[in-house]
Amino acid sequence: MVDGASPAARGSVGEALTAALARTIEFRRRFRGVTLDYAWACDASMYSAHRFHGPGLVLVGDAGCAIDPLSSFGVRKALGSAWLAAVVLHTALVDPSREDLALEFFSRREQEIYEAERARTRAYAQEAYAAHGGAFWAARAAGVGTVVPLALEASLLQRSEVAAAHRQLRTAGFLEAQAPDRLSLIRHPVVRGREIVLDDALQLREGALRFALDVDLKALVGVTAGRCDVLHAHEVYCRTVAYVPLPNFLAAAALLLAEGLLTLHASVA
Fold first, then answer.
1. Residue 65 and residue 107: Cα distance in Å, rounded?
2. What pLDDT shows up at residue 245?
């Protein structure tokens, strides 16, 4: 990656690439004797494929979509994409009947991440433009297109009812949570270890969801069955399910409160 105004970017793309490879050690060794027939480059703008898989292939990392370099999440996104692609391929190898399920899961997840990053990019560019002005931020604030629909998890967590429930959980002091006796569950693809499987998900008003902020919503309901202090519920969840930071746990609990799947009761001294 080079700055378009730098000396390295002058001349042909092939020349710039050859010069860059010549300054490396491992790549130079691996490409020794290889002839460069064609080289191309694109700017570092956001882009996305419409479909992230095809016959015998999946589009991993920037091959499928690229987010704004200023987000600082590019490497993390690429690693997450590679990990999920490995899970998809493993699933297809151990159970070919789940190949289509796994590929569609991967495609949907990659698109959701891209859409969430588009919305985030637009928001921070508009914030920067409001604070600093300038043509650079004006172009970025207007140049990422219209705000796209967020993934179900993100859109639910941003609802005003969830924010209100979250404030209750954080400021109300000693509270108790009680889960309802019955839950509406639906089969939904989730990652289990190294495979993508169909498992129970909670049927919410706007769709089915099993995880929010890495919190297992079904397990959260389970640990709060009967009356349980919120902080104690977090401790039990971390001990019996998996560790999650308290802010993530509270946000997921707030979502379930807003959905009516948990209720709060003031503790009696």
1. 11
2. 94
Q: Distance (Å, rounded) from C-alpha 187 to C-alpha 46? A: 34
What is the CATH superfamily name and number for domain 47-149? FAD/NAD(P)-binding domain (3.50.50.60)
Chain centre distance of CA 269: 41
Indicate left, alpha or beta for 152 from its phi (over 0: left) and psi (-120 to 50: alpha).
alpha
Which SS3 state, helix, strand or coil, does residue 131 take? helix
pLDDT (tens digit per residue) in 102-122: 999 999 999 988 988 888 888
Q: What distance in Å separates the CA atoms of residue 62 and residue 76, rounded to the nearest whole number?
A: 12
Predicted TM-score (pTM) of this structure: 0.71
The domain ranges of the chain are: 1-41, 47-149, 154-266
Contact call for residues 201 and 186 (beta carbons, < 8 A):
yes
Output the CA–CA distances (angstroms, integers) from residue 250 to 63, 163, 169, in the order listed: 36, 11, 7
Q: Is 197 exposed, middle or buried (0-12, 13-18, 19+ CB in 10 A)?
A: middle
**Could you give the CA distance from residue 65 to residue 50 in angstroms, rounded to a whole number?**
9
